[in-house]
Each structure stands twice: as structure tokens, then as C-alpha cells.
Amino acid sequence: MLAPSSIKTIVPFLQKALAPFGGWLHFCGGGKHLLEPFLALPEVKGVNFGNPEKYDWEKTLKQIVSAGKVYYGSVFRKESEPLAEYFRRVLAPLKKKGNLIFCPVLRETESPAEAIATWYQIQSALF
Q1: Which of 10, 53, 71, 95 has the most C-beta neighbours closer than 10 Å?
Q2: Which InterPro entries does the UniProt record give (predicted)?
Q3: Residue 77 class from Cβ within 10 Å (0-12 exposed, 13-18 middle, 19+ buried)?
Q4: pLDDT score, position 32
């Protein structure tokens, strides 16, 4: 975990490492202080959180979209949240397709085929 005071020190190294092709950044924990400075870097194309439950999904996705970046990963799912409701909540902050490579949290009783069909049905209705 990086302290807020360390960000200015590491940014030049991140830019140099990502300069040839761009890249993604992953961080765990409550790294909210890292998100804005990292999204401001042109070399950063996307982010992934190790602890997505620590973020306000709607606010954070809007911040990522506003920066022209992509979120790759899962989104916290409430214990009793039905699949369709979960997908609607995940998609709600978006105005169009894009900016999201989603890895859903599925229950043992939910098949990948069911999840894909539900996702496309909801996505088609929204966009």
C-alpha cells in the first residue's frame, strides 16, 4: 500500500514503465487516495481493485469513465441480491457500453450460461 505522500515519488516510474504500451494498475485495500492521481496519467488505461467492496461503485465507475479509462474486475455483490438486480446495479452508472470488463460474482446455483444471457438481456434493454 502506498501512502498519499509516496504518490509523487512513484508516478514518474509508473509513467516510464507504462510508456511503451500503456497498462493497467491494480491495488488492494482502501486505495481511494491513489485512484485520482493514477486516472490522470495518460499511460494508465484501466484499473483493477483487489477489494472492490471498499469503493462506492456508482461514484467510482463514473470517475473512471470520466477519465476515459476502463474498470476490469468484480463488483461487490450483496448477499441476497438476485443476479438481475446485481447486473442492473453494475450497469447503472454507465451511459453506453464500454469502460467495463466485468467479472461477476456468481452463486453456486447460477450457471455461466444463465449469467451471460441475463447480462445481455439487461445490457440490451439499457443501451
Answers
A1: 71
A2: UROD/MetE-like_sf (IPR038071)
A3: buried
A4: 84
Domain tally, the chain:
1
Structure confidence at residue 95 (pLDDT):
93
Q: What is d(CA 71, CA 78) in angstroms, rounded to the nearest whole number?
A: 19
Domain hosting 74: range is 4-126
Q: pLDDT value at position 35?
A: 93
Going across the sheet that includes 23-27, the strands are 23-27, 44-49, 70-73, 100-102
> Mean pLDDT lowest for which of 26-30, 53-57, 93-97?
26-30
Which secondary structure element, helix H or strand E, spans residue 57, and what is its range? helix 57-66
Q: Partners of 49 in the beta sheet?
A: 27
Q: What was the pLDDT predicted at 3?
A: 80
